[in-house]
Design brief:
Length: 523
């Protein structure tokens, strides 16, 4: 099948078969019930478990049966998912609206191993040479001990990936690494808080922006440069480096070193590129290479595992099943590990920016819903926040639990209780509780997925992030989307310019009445 002319999910015969199966088995008085499913099928837990690199997934507590799973795999085949996946991994121009490839899986290709296509050497030349230079630079930063503090300035994918990685891998930060700080928000309170107490002569600023034109990043970088000079800093070029696909713009700003990457590296999947500089500074070249290797292992699983046992594919198909047949509007992500506390925020961008669209890749309006709202918080904190709604609320929300067996601390009594809470919440959501008192009644039959990592290290973290990248690609592929553009991000930026001019001048002509009124009040 030609991946460029593959049918959209609603154009495939399996789509209608799924609709009929859902109507017959998931609605009405005899609707599918997890408790009954487990009672009737003692092998369900084993049959719905999937082993993947560095993690295990238990999908058995989801509102799905074997026939629905079979039809979803059939749908994937009819929609040319495998061909589309192979095109992605071969560096073809899967980002059609911007006429470029999505190169992030290829950045993880093992060094010294031939690339899958000869032409990729040219497409990846800038990224791979920049990556090598970046890793060497990161090693020198630690060895030379010139800087006590490194401030990473970015936003969106240039911030969320490195920030999450440093939180997740905090126990693996090398003892000779400088302190790492992150600044993203245009709100000056964040930058002011980071700068407080820093010494300009002992601080390195990393400015991360693919276009080197991102308004928030340039505003923060400009203010950091002004602070550096006002504090008596000298040798600006030695204290500012850039990570960008537009090195000429960065040099005009005054940075000393530029580490470049190609246009085919998207912002929300850029952690694997030079954007990972703060991560490499913290965990070293070997740690960063382990991160890449873990992600590559998941790439190979995505490329080679049968669709029935392919974890990114199965999770993506489950997302389609829930969004378009159960009509669930959101998914809750609850990692039971402090290092993954920002994972829900990272996944919000990865999924909703990729698949939050109402037209397909050919520009046709979609007659079905796409990306759900992704939200969540770290466990066990979340149990004392929104779990009341998950257990007894009027909406059914699939929950994704993520747990890690081995802790990276030696404190007694914490990890068994933490894991017990994660397992108990998944169990309670499914079983519910029958009580005579309506206030103490729990309906149960509420779905969840359980992802289990042996440990949280560079390799397993890389695998977890790559898993979610491919999962989003899978659902986007079936929905017929281009998951690699984000035109909706640009609209607000265009309006911001006109509003900013109004705030500066007081002129409100051209603004709508509501905005004009607020501009006048703010002035």
């Amino acid at each position: 099948m030609d991946w460029q002319n593959r049918p959209r999910c609603d154009e495939a015969p399996a789509w209608q078969a799924l609709g009929a199966h859902f109507a017959a088995h998931f609605t009405g008085d005899q609707a599918f019930d997890l408790r009954r499913a487990f009672a009737q099928d003692p092998d369900r837990a084993q049959d719905f478990g999937i082993e993947a690199p560095h993690l295990f997934a238990d999908l058995s507590r989801n509102l799905i049966d074997r026939q629905a799973r079979t039809l979803l795999v059939q749908l994937a085949r009819e929609c040319g998912l495998a061909e589309h996946r192979d095109a992605l991994l071969a560096g073809e121009h899967v980002n059609a609206t911007e006429d470029r490839p999505a190169l992030h899986p290829l950045l993880r290709w093992p060094a010294g191993t031939p690339l899958p296509r000869e032409h990729l050497k040219e497409s990846l030349a800038l990224s791979l040479s920049g990556l090598g230079e970046m890793l060497s630079f990161a090693e020198r930063i630690r060895l030379e001990k010139r800087y006590d503090d490194v401030v990473h300035i970015g936003i969106g994918g240039s911030d969320l990936g490195p920030r999450l990685a440093l939180q997740a891998l905090a126990p693996h930060v090398l003892p000779d690494a400088p302190r790492l700080h992150f600044v993203a928000n245009m709100d000056g309170h964040e930058l002011a808080a980071v700068l407080r107490g820093l010494k300009p002569e002992r601080t390195l600023f990393i400015v991360a922006s693919k276009s080197f034109g991102t308004a928030e990043t340039l505003r923060n970088a400009t203010s950091a440069r002004a602070w550096f000079e006002a504090q008596g800093g000298t040798g600006l070029a030695a204290h500012f480096v850039a990570l960008t696909a537009r090195p000429e713009a960065a040099r005009e700003f005054g940075v000393g070193r530029c580490f470049a990457f190609d246009d085919g590296v998207g912002g929300r999947t850029s952690l694997w590129s030079v954007i990972g500089l703060p991560v490499a500074v913290a965990i070293g070249r070997a740690g960063f290479e382990a991160l890449l290797a873990g992600a590559h292992a998941m790439d190979r699983h995505f490329a080679e595992a049968p669709l029935e046992a392919n974890l990114p594919v199965q999770l993506g198909l489950l997302d389609v099943w829930y969004r378009n047949f159960h009509h669930f509007g959101s998914r809750c992500v609850v990692p039971y590990h402090h290092g993954l506390r920002s994972l829900p925020f990272y996944l919000q961008q990865l999924e909703m920016e990729s698949n939050g669209k109402q037209v397909d890749a050919r520009g046709r309006s979609l007659p079905f819903d796409t990306a759900p709202v992704v939200w969540g918080a770290v466990g066990s904190n979340a149990q004392h926040a929104f779990f009341q709604m998950l257990h007894q609320g009027t909406q059914v929300v699939p929950v994704e639990f993520i747990a890690v067996r081995e802790p990276a601390h030696a404190l007694e009594g914490h990890q068994p209780r933490l894991l017990a809470n994660a397992l108990a919440q998944a169990r309670a959501l499914m079983l519910g509780h029958v009580a005579g008192d309506a206030h103490r009644h729990f309906p149960g039959n509420r779905p969840s997925t359980f992802l289990l990592l042996e440990r949280l290290d560079a390799a397993s973290f890389g695998a977890l992030i790559a898993l979610n990248e491919h999962r989003v690609f899978t659902s986007g592929s079936l929905w017929g989307l281009n998951s690699f553009d984000q035109w909706g991000v640009e609209l607000g930026k265009r309006h911001a310019g006109a509003v900013e001019a109004g705030l500066a001048s007081g002129r409100t002509d051209g603004l709508d009445a509501a905005t004009a009124g607020l501009v006048r009040r703010l002035r």
